[in-house]
């Protein structure tokens, strides 16, 4: 049986979208299930014969999370720490990526870049004791500064490599022309490189934001004051020694997801172009 090229293309497209649909359902179903659990009354959540849907949906769990717990405080802490770490990570990452890109032929630069990437392969758990000692000696435990610095340390290497790939695609002739017109390195980066790199910077910022928003181990280690907890560790209050408040826990999980989903919605076009911009050179 001979199939025309158009038929083959249509068949391939159908199969591709089918598997993408299956993958999407597989990825989104836990979120859907969490939402259904969050709108169930308490007696249905703890029922020995659980059901997927409920006949009596309620927003009581969301109301309880927002007005009867420290969730708003955890949310504020997460916003402060996430925004701070994103700005600091992008600032350091841009400078480091530009240096690695333009000094790539200098001795030791490639080794330094590879070393930064290999450092990411070290499990975070192995670094907890020395990092805790450092934070304790510097008086940075239970503080925004300590969390921002620790998040930045783990985000900068990947951000640097993401931005370096983009800077490599920007012709050096653009910089040479600007310098002939009297532009120094600082204004070269601020007025030329940064505007050209907006998609890549947004992609790197999203990585840093997701990393900071969902980070658990560092916060759990460096923060013992309940008023300084972030969302990832604050939800532990819904898990007791003998029982788990699944209704409020799922409601909190949905509320944690919403801000990231909104951010992705508004900057999706920059994210896609930024992730593919550094894949080719020329």
UniProtKB/TrEMBL annotation:
SUPFAM superfamilies named in the record: MetI-like
Annotated CDD domains: TM_PBP2 (cd06261)
Keywords, sorted A to Z: Cell membrane, Membrane, Transmembrane, Transmembrane helix, Transport
GO biological process: transmembrane transport
Record flagged with keyword Nucleotide-binding: no
Keyword Cell membrane: yes
First-listed, main subcellular location of the protein, grouped into a coarse class: membrane
Listed PANTHER family: INNER MEMBRANE ABC TRANSPORTER PERMEASE PROTEIN YCJP, MALTOSE TRANSPORT SYSTEM PERMEASE-RELATED
Protein name according to UniProt: Raffinose/stachyose/melibiose transport system permease protein
Organism of this sequence: Gracilibacillus orientalis
């Amino acid at each position: 049986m001979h199939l025309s090229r158009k038929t083959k293309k249509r068949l391939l497209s159908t199969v591709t979208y089918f598997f993408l649909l299956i993958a999407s359902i597989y990825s989104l179903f836990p979120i859907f299930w969490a939402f259904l659990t969050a709108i169930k009354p308490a007696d249905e959540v703890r029922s020995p014969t659980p059901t997927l849907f409920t006949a009596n949906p309620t927003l009581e769990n969301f109301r309880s999370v927002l007005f009867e717990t420290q969730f708003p405080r955890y949310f504020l802490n997460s916003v402060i720490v996430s925004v701070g770490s994103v700005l600091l990570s992008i600032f350091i990452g841009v400078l480091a990526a530009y240096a690695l890109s333009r000094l790539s032929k200098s001795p030791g630069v490639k080794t330094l870049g590879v070393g930064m990437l290999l450092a990411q392969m070290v499990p975070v758990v192995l670094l907890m004791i020395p990092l805790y000692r450092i934070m304790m000696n510097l008086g940075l435990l239970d503080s925004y500064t300590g969390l921002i610095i620790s998040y930045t340390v783990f985000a900068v290497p990947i951000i640097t490599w993401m931005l370096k790939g983009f800077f490599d695609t920007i012709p050096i002739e653009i910089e040479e022309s600007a310098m002939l017109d009297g532009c120094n390195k600082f204004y070269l980066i601020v007025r030329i490189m940064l505007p050209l790199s907006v998609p890549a910077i947004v992609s790197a910022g999203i990585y840093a934001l997701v990393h900071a928003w969902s980070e658990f181990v560092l916060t759990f280690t460096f923060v013992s004051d309940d008023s300084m907890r972030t969302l990832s560790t604050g939800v532990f209050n819904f898990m007791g020694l003998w029982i788990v408040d699944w209704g409020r826990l799922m409601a909190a999980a949905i509320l944690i997801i919403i801000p990231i989903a909104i951010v992705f919605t508004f900057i999706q076009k920059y994210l896609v172009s930024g992730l593919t911009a550094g894949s080719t050179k020329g």
